Amino acid sequence: MKMVYTNESLFLVNNTKNIIEAAGIVTFLKNEFSQGAAGEISAFDCWPEIWVQQDSDYEKAIAVVASTQKSISMDDWICNKCCEKNDASFEICWQCQHEQA
Ligand SMILES: [Zn+2]
Fold it and tell me: Which of 19, 24, 73, 95 has the most CB atoms at less than 10 Å from its CB?
C-alpha cells in the first residue's frame, strides 16, 4: 500500500479519489475523520490521505493525480522575472513578456 495524495482539504482529496477510482484503481482514505481531532498531533498529520491498495497501481495513480493537479492549478501565476501576477490564460508575463516558467 502506498500513499499517492494528501491535502488539507477533504473536498479535494475526495475529488481526487473519485478521479483515481474512475481510472480503475482501488484506493482508500486515511485520516478521513481525523479532522478536528488535532490536539497533540500536528495538523499536517491529520490531513486526509489517499492510498492505493496495490503497489502496482502506484505509478498510474500518481500520473492520474498529476493530471488533476494540472487542471486544478489553472490559476494565476507569478512571473519569476518581475514578480508580477498574471492571469492563468496568459502564457507570457503581461508586464515584461517573460515566459511562464
Ligand atoms: Zn514579468
Answer: 19
| Domains of the chain (ranges, CATH numbers) | 2-74 (3.30.70)
Distance 96 CA to ligand 1 centre (A): 4
78 CA to middle of ligand 1, Å? 8
* Secondary structure (H, E, C), 69-90: HHHHCCCCEECCCCCCEECCCC
Instruction: Report how far ligand 1's centroid is from the alpha carbon of 94 (Å).
Output: 7
The model's pLDDT over 17-71, given as tens digits with 9 standing for 90+, comes to: 999 999 999 999 998 876 555 555 555 568 899 999 999 999 999 999 988 776 5
- The answer to pTM > 0.70 is no
Strand, coil or helix: what is 37? coil
